[in-house]
Amino acid sequence: MSHEKFGFSAVKPRFIEYDKNDRTLFYLLRRREPSISICFSCGSCSATCPANAQTPFSFSRIMLYIRRGEKVQIAREINKCMMCGKCRLACPKGVNTRNIILITRDFLQKRTP
Amino acid sequence: MEHHSTRPDWTQYQKDIADDHYYYARSCIRQNFFPASEQTFLRILKDELGKDILDDAHHTTCTGIGYHTDVVPLETTMTVVARNFALMTEAGYKNYVPSCITSFGLYTEILETWHHFPETLEKTREFLYKATKREFNIPENLAHTSDVIFKFRNEIAAKAKFRLINKETGKPLRIVDHIGCHYAKMFPGKGIGGAEYPYVLAGMIEAWGGQTVDYPERRHCCGFGFRQYFVKANRSYSLSASRKKFESMEPFKPDAIVNNCPGCPYFLDRWQYVTAESEGKVFGPDNKPIPVLTYEEMAGLVLGYDPWDLGLQMHQVPVEPLMDKMGIPYDASKKYLDKNGKDIGKPVIPELFKSSVHE
Amino acid sequence: MNKRVLIIGAGIAGMEAAASLLALGNEVLLFERDEIPGGHLKDWERLFPTQRLGSEVLDFLKKGIGSNVQLIHGTTITSAEKHEGRFKVVSSGGDVWWGDAVLLATGYDLFDATKKEEYGYGIFKNVITSADLEKRLLHSKELLTAEGKKPGRIAFVHCVGSRDRKIGNVFCSKVCCVTAVKQAIEIRQLLPDCEAYCFYMDLRMYGMKFEELYNEAQEKWGVTFIRGRMSEVSENIDRSLLVKVEDTLIGRPMRMNVDMLVLMVGFVPTKTTAKLAANIGVELNENGFIKMLDEHTSSNITNVPGVFVTGTAAAPQTISTTVMDARSAAVVVNNWLNSGGKA
After folding, report:
1. What class, spelled out in words, does domain B146-356 have in CATH?
2. What is the rounded CA–CA span in Å between residue B6 and residue B174?
3. Helix, strand, coil percent values for chain A (each to nearest 5)
4. C88 bridge partner residues
5. Are B294 and B265 in contact (CB under 8 A)?
6. Where are the domains of chain B?
7. Which of A1, A12, A15 would best serve as a mutation to test chain B binding (most B beta carbons within 10 A)?
8. Nearest CA in chain B to C115
């Protein structure tokens, strides 16, 4: 955008463009770790997470980003997880949260050169 | 592809529009953006419809711009508005028709405030008297000028020399109607068709042979506001709002956009230029930009007025493609000549707009 | 001497109450304005939480009234009054019946979704209500868009006309959340290639087996639940719908294209009930339903002695609780009659 000519330019909308997002990671996780489907975003995981206490790393939000296909946000945050497993202990539905993180990290590493 | 406006519920929102004897309140800035629109309105009402309408030179701005940018306090605005009403009363009129949609929204808001909080009305009477020794009556009928044209749309259709139909294909032209936010979004009951499916412009389009376009961002604001664009750094916000509308209407291949607000056509017209220059994109059919009209200009075209008398040469997006489609004759050589034949200077035509004009 | 009970409305509550009152030894007259009894249940294909057929419950109720309950169908009762210790009801046709007690079982109406203009019901052909969907599933095993195509994505909108102060219905309609989950599962069963989304504010899974149904929808059928109330629906050029919703858990607005939209319409009190209640002096509560004398101890009793209420005329109910409530009403009416209750 030629910002220089006018001094302003159109901004990208904030919408989650559901139809334009790529949800391959989610479908992969659904096949490899089916318990991802049972999450109902209660937040017990991120409430007990030690990383969330120090940094803005929220596993429950990452789960939502995965579901919507918002890849940029996932990549930024996923590496803060310490793999302590407290989230898995707290989850009332039995979601295998650690496996989801491992598969996601693997997926993102393979995608980036 | 048929895409009709199937809006049965516009009839739920009806409003009383006076028949005759109007007091006309002009807009502060509209005459700069679209020079002949207000003149055309007066011409249509007086010459075509034989109505009594007073074009009073004494009235002032309603201070809507100032009010919405927080530079004029509400009490001041109320007093200025009361002065305009006093002028109307003194001239012997009861029906107030403002030209600007923000004015209309402001007047409606003030009348509602006075109705629900009578102490503010008393205060305003006091302020006005102290400042000017004037007294005023509340208008019996407040309607926007587009409401008046809507009311007489069939009479105008009867006198029409051209219709909103593509001369070559015989199909109705697809016209996007964009209603100013202050028309019905604040008080849905005060707008024809309410806030969700306003019908005031759609009714005109349909009465004059065209077809309205119903696209997803139809009700989205054009981004004019006031705060947003006064400061240059904020203009990206306004630009993005209009751009979102253009993107959304593009698949429907509209032939024109019609508005009833001073600011909306200004933005929808100018931002097409900015987008064409900065992004290299236009949004109309045949890779052309979309002509933008005010409803008075549309009425004028339909009634066969000379396009250059309607001020169409001042539009950034050339209106020639629309006039060609409608079969309206015009003299391209006279486009940039004033009433005395003197050359008023030619603007630079953006590269992407060149296909719309006859060079 | 056998006492006679006049039951107005042969829906679920009316029919079950009639059966119970009959079993307790009373004479029952059951009035129904339609030609066939059953009320809204006639148009419902499958019932939550087990997805059993609605027709099975309808058959059960019909069997209950058998031939000993006098079913007076095609008759609308327009007035009821006390007269010399008994009740007199009059139909729109001018016919008169007498009885010793009146049981109002006049049920509910579904919210008129055209009032929520932003959803485009009645304007966009691909926007339907949950009742429309249920009727379609009842009469045909095929579900197509208005253009005759197989839908690829169907979205459900919860709380349409309920929990909505602007519309004037502040209450929760109780059954719509679990119905949405049920219908989402049914869509996934009927059309395996079609995605299903539920847009909710809260998910009210209070009953036995409701939560399990929700789990099944997520785990087994891949229904996606998005917390956010749909705010605007528009039509794209191919007649698919563009919906705008805030994904409140992420905190960002979202845009999505769907092929069909199902609006979960709630209960509203009926105008005919209000008229009849006014006629006989029965009070309505602030939501327009018939007022219970006491929510905990006297839920079937109205302010008028001898006039009782059962079913959804008093409050939104599920089918199971309506059946229970009807039986409870029967006991209450019976007790009143046997203890010398007089109009």
Report:
1. alpha beta
2. 14
3. 60, 0, 40
4. C81, C98
5. yes
6. 25-44+54-143, 146-356
7. A1
8. B9
- For A39, which residue in chain C has the nearest alpha carbon? C218
**C neighbour chains, 3+ CB pairs within 8 Å:** A, B
Contacts of B213 (CB under 8 A, 6+ apart): B3, B5, B174, B175, B176, B177, B249, B252, B254
Cis preceding linkage at C49, omega within 30: yes
Phi, psi of C72 (to 5 degrees): -105, 95
Residues 222-281 (C) with a CB less than 8 A from some CB of B: 232, 234-237, 242
**Across the interface, which of C114, C117, C234 has its CB nearest the CB of B218?**
C234
* B contact chains, 3+ CB pairs < 8 A: A, C
The burial class, CB within 10 Å (0-12 / 13-18 / 19+), for C205 is middle
Tokens of C147: 């253009």
User: Which A-chain residues 68-87 have CB contacts (< 8 A) with chain C?
Assistant: 68, 70
Residues of B whose CB is below 8 A from C122: 8-9
Does the complex come out with an ipTM higher than 0.85?
Answer: yes
In a domain, A1, yes or no: no
Q: State the Cα–Cα distance between residues B174 and B251, nearest whole angstrom.
A: 12
Give me the number of domains chain A comprises.
1
Strand pairing of C252-258 and C260-265? unpaired
> Distance between CA atoms of B180 and B120, rounded to whole angstroms?
27
HSE (CB half, 13 Å, CA atoms) of B177?
23
Question: Coil, strand or helix: which one is A10?
Answer: coil
Rounded distance between C-alpha atoms, residue B189 and residue C248, angstroms = 31
- What is the Cα–Cα distance from C89 to C49, expressed in whole angstroms? 38
A38 and C CB contact within 8 Å: yes
Give every strand in the sheet of C70-72, ordered side by side: C70-72, C27-31, C4-8, C101-104, C307-309
- Taking contacts as CB-CB distances below 8 angstroms, the residues of chain C near A60 are 249
- Listed residue (B314, B244, B306, B297) closest to B275, CA to CA: B244
Q: pTM, whole model, 2 decimals?
A: 0.88
Please indicate, yes or no, if residue A13 is contained in any of the structural domains: no
Q: Specify if A104 maps to a domain.
A: yes
Whole-angstrom Cα distance, residue C291 to residue C309?
Answer: 9
Bridge-based pairing state of the strands C153-160 and C260-265: parallel
CB burial string C117-143: b at 16+ within 10 A, e below: bebbbebbebbbbbbbbbbebbeeeeb
Does residue B151 contact residue B145 with C-beta atoms inside 8 Å? no
Domain that holds residue A38: 19-111
Nearest C-alpha in B relative to A5:
B278
A50, part of any domain: yes
A6 inside 8 A of chain C by CB? no
Contact criterion met (CB below 8 Å) for C184 and C199 = no
Residuewise pLDDT in 10s, chain B (359 residues): 333 445 656 677 788 899 999 999 999 988 888 989 999 999 999 999 999 999 999 999 999 988 988 899 999 999 999 999 999 999 999 999 999 999 999 999 999 999 999 999 999 999 999 999 999 999 999 999 999 999 999 999 999 999 999 999 999 999 999 999 999 888 888 888 888 788 999 999 999 999 999 899 998 999 887 877 878 878 888 899 999 999 999 999 999 999 999 999 999 999 999 999 888 999 999 899 999 999 999 999 999 999 999 999 989 999 999 999 999 999 988 899 988 889 988 888 888 898 888 75
Rg over CA atoms, chain C: 22
- CA distance linking residue B124 with residue B119, whole number of Å: 9
Chain A CB contacts of B283 under 8 Å are none
Å from A9 to nearest chain B CA? 5
Tell whether C295 lies on the interface with B, counting CB pairs under 8 A: no
Q: At A90, which CATH number?
A: 1.10.1060.10
